[in-house]
TrEMBL record:
Designated name of the protein: Gfo/Idh/MocA family oxidoreductase
UniProt-listed InterPro entries: Gfo/Idh/MocA-like_OxRdtase_N, Gfo/Idh/MocA_Oxidoreductase, GFO_IDH_MocA-like_dom, NAD(P)-bd_dom_sf
The Gfo/Idh/MocA-like oxidoreductase N-terminal domain, residue ranges: 45-160
One term of GO molecular function: nucleotide binding
GFO/IDH/MocA-like oxidoreductase domain mapped to chain residues: 172-294
Superkingdom, taxonomy of origin: Bacteria
Length: 387
């Protein structure tokens, strides 16, 4: 059977069982889908490539989804692959990810590899008809990102890139306020990351700290999410003026950077990011419009001020722990994005954060590098890299 036919078959099974359940609610005569039949409903096979730090976030999410089964995992470090499979109940593990990709019972894969391997592994997966969910950033340069996007299109498989922070309750609430026009004209957007990474963080994994393998430092790896949120809400960036420095680490890439931005809509913005702060983890996104302001800190709304909100409510909203997202670390929204990716495959929908969308955030980061290296203002292509 063609790999792409299977998701459609499973979707039909899902829709049928949904219909039966709905009918049962309305019908006085009990029509039940027998548990035995439900258990036999075919699941999509899922594979995860790379069993490092982010791996458990994918594996846990996959395990919770009834439509998929974690079939196999892969890591070049044998122990990580074996332990990863054991811990999350995968049938198989491999040190060569191509063996995982060769399995006919795997339809979707998460790529949780170092940045320079995203393009190669995604293309290898697409060539074998697998739908790809790749960790951020899409790739380490434009050319590799384009090849990933083109190959996935050619092979008619989905490509989605992780940006789980867009799925946090606080970000969703902020985006909704923007969509409803509550800010009025946007005037200023600020994104800040103050992070602490000591030298051992870079020494532990060989791929970190190098342009050729990590593709950047604090901006690419730590500030990526907050920059993505800034761009998502404020819109395309017209130009960038930036500085960067490597201040407290023995690495090639930046550990500290600042940038000022002009958005296409005329608003201004700033980004600052460091891995050299004594503060463990702190991210802050400020969106200011002519009519209102909102601030998210560490995945929580800490300030929320719009006309018509009574003073007491403003305080209440600002301090409300929006959702149950822990306010530190990676957040807990991987399951939401992974669930959506599985639905995208089942329902043949284009992922919201597809290759092109993720590339826009990477282009902005690359423009910051380009400005910092050249000492010049860098103009993004028409549409702020959104072209
Ligand atoms: N979305 C987030 O919040 C978030 C958080 C952390 C990391 N990440 C991203 O996840 C990705 C991985 O980061 P990490 O922190 O887990 O890194 P990591 O170094 O902990 O894990 C990478 C794993 O890939 C394995 N690997 C390397 N080459 C391989 C190959 N050819 N085949 C199979 N396995 C191979 C390594 O042995 C390692 O176990 C990166 O893109 C990173 O930016 C995202």
């Amino acid at each position: 059977m063609a790999t792409n036919a299977r998701p459609k078959m499973i979707l039909s099974a899902c829709l049928l069982s949904k219909y039966l359940l709905k009918y049962r609610l309305k019908c006085p005569r009990k029509i039940t889908t027998s548990p035995a039949k439900e258990e036999r409903m075919p699941k999509l096979g899922y594979g995860i490539i790379g069993c490092g730090r982010i791996f458990p976030f994918h594996a846990r999410a996959v395990r919770k989804l009834p439509e998929v089964e974690l079939v196999a995992v892969s890591d070049i470090v044998e122990e990580r692959a074996r332990k990863g499979a054991q811990m999350f109940g995968a049938k198989a593990w491999y040190t060569d990810y191509r063996k995982l990709l060769d399995r006919k019972d795997i339809h979707l894969v998460s790529i949780c590899l170092p940045h320079h391997l995203h393009a190669k592994a995604s293309i290898d997966a697409a060539m074998r008809g697998k739908h790809v969910l790749c960790e951020k950033p899409i790739a380490i340069n434009e050319e590799e990102a384009r090849r990933m996007i083109d190959e996935c299109r050619r092979r008619k498989v989905k490509l989605a890139i992780i940006s789980q922070n867009r799925y946090n309750d606080a970000s969703q609430k902020l985006y909704k306020a923007f969509q409803e026009g509550r800010f009025g004209r946007l005037v200023l957007g600020c994104a800040d990351v103050k992070n602490h990474k000591d030298q051992s963080y870079y020494d532990r994994d060989e791929w970190r700290g190098r342009w050729a393998t990590e593709g950047g430092g604090s901006l690419t790896t730590q500030a990526y999410h907050i920059i993505d949120l800034l761009r998502w809400i404020m819109g395309p960036v017209r130009s960038v003026c930036a500085h960067m420095a490597t201040l407290t680490h023995d690495i090639e890439v930046e550990d500290t950077a600042t940038a000022t931005l002009e958005f296409e809509n005329g608003a201004l913005g700033e980004i600052s990011s460091t891995n050299s702060s004594p503060i463990g983890f702190s991210t802050r996104l400020e969106i200011h419009g002519e009519n209102g302001s909102a601030i998210i800190q560490d995945n929580r709304i800490v300030y929320w001020d719009f006309p018509g909100i009574p003073e007491a409510e403003k305080v209440l909203e600002a301090h409300l722990q929006i959702g149950s997202i822990p306010n530190r670390g990676y957040g807990e929204s991987h399951p939401r994005q992974i669930k959506e990716f599985v639905r995208d495959v089942l329902e043949d929908r284009e992922p919201l954060i597809n290759g092109e969308e993720a590339l826009k955030t990477s282009r902005l980061i690359w423009a910051i590098y380009s400005s910092a290296k050249s000492g010049r203002k860098v103009y993004l292509t028409k549409g702020g890299g959104d072209a």
